Amino acid sequence: MKIGASTLAGIEYSLENALNYIEGLGLDYAELVHQYPCENIDPELLETFNLKYSIHAPFMDVNIASLQDQSRLNSIKQIKNSIELANRIDAEAVVIHPGTISFLPNKFFRKEVIGFAEESMIELGKYGADLGVLTTFENMPAFSAMLYQNMRELDDFLVDNDLYMTLDVGHANHAGFSSDEMIFDSVKHVHIHDNFGDDDAHLPLGEGSIDLKRVVNNLEEKNFNGIYILEVNDYDSIKKSYEYMKKNF
User: Fold this and answer.
1) For 113-134, what is each residue's pLDDT tens digit?
2) pTM
3) Strands (E) located in the chain
4) Residue 128 and residue 42: Cα distance in Å, rounded?
5) How many angstroms separate the Cα of 190 from the Cα of each of 37, 94, 136?
6) What is the pLDDT of residues 66-76, one digit of tens each?
């Protein structure tokens, strides 16, 4: 089983500090959050650690579904930079958010927004494939601005276009999917954290209401070979979650 942690937990510290902590726990993988304050990641720094990597493409101020051409194209450019970094450091996956929709577009132009999201995902998936990078798209939590809260719709689109999913277990629970309903053949990468269904809380594993053992066992039964990334809020939560994984699996 491949287990890693997201540097999101140490976002207020330096990247070196976060990687030191992750490696010190004995984890083999780290997911690099490739946005402020870590927009410019030095591959030479990464080589000083005994870690393998995945990359979370930028999501702050980025929207690949934007109706505004300049905003959308700039978002795509930023994410392509993450895919290029993944290629340089031989990262195992890149995670991409499928876009957001604000009130006015949701009222008048939802079809157009979805169309742009799909075009962007296809373009980014092809870009990753051309560079030999596993490019994945993440299911979103149940917030009004988020596209693809419905995992079935996301899976249908991805399968039809030979694309892949990052299963975010906490997002799926927040969006009302049971542990058995979260498993799709398109899943190649996993973000795992806990909540009570009422918020996207990113709690340590075992401190919410998700049947995490069932989720993981379902994935393992399908011979899942990707990484379980502990995507929690702070260093102590990484430690608690890693202990949960070692104890239960």
Assistant:
1) 999 999 999 999 999 999 999 9
2) 0.96
3) 2-6, 29-33, 52-56, 94-96, 135-138, 164-168, 187-192, 227-230
4) 20
5) 24, 11, 10
6) 999 999 999 99
